[in-house]
Amino acid sequence: MAAKFVGIDPDTDRDHCPTVWADEEAQEILLQGWKPTPETQAACEGTSPAHGPVPDTEAIVRIPARMIPMIREACDAVERAQLR
């Protein structure tokens, strides 16, 4: 896996730093973010009748809106990789 660093939260304190990567080979976006509170986790799990608990192999992460441009950049990189 060759994850391409896209960006880090510009307001980070470098100890708690939401980050975005693009894995062009696997055509996936990788996100590091804050863990949700138990209340947020429960709210996300209950938003759809078809959606149950989050499996142990998955996670909900919270990403600040100021990182949207980085997420778009990662999406563009993965999309471009599909066209090769």
Description:
- By secondary structure, this protein is an alpha+beta fold.
- It has a domain at 19-32 and 46-84.
- Helix content is 27%, strand content 19%.
- It has 2 helices and 3 strands, in the order βββαα.
- A 3-stranded antiparallel sheet has the order 1-2-3, covered by helices on one side.
- The longest helix is centred in the last third of the chain and has 15 residues, at 68-82.
Count of DSSP H/I helices: 2
The class by helix and strand makeup works out as alpha+beta
End-to-end Cα distance, whole Å, is 17 Å
- Spatial arrangement of strands, main beta sheet: 1-2-3
Uncertain regions spanning at least 5 consecutive residues? none
Main sheet summary: 3 strands, antiparallel
Cα radius of gyration in angstroms? 15 Å
Shape: globular
pLDDT averaged over residues: 88
What fraction of the residues are assigned to beta strands by DSSP?
15-25%
Order of helices and strands: EEEHH
- Structure summary, number of beta strands: 3
Which assembly state applies to the chains in this document? Answer: single chain
Report the helical percentage.
25-40%
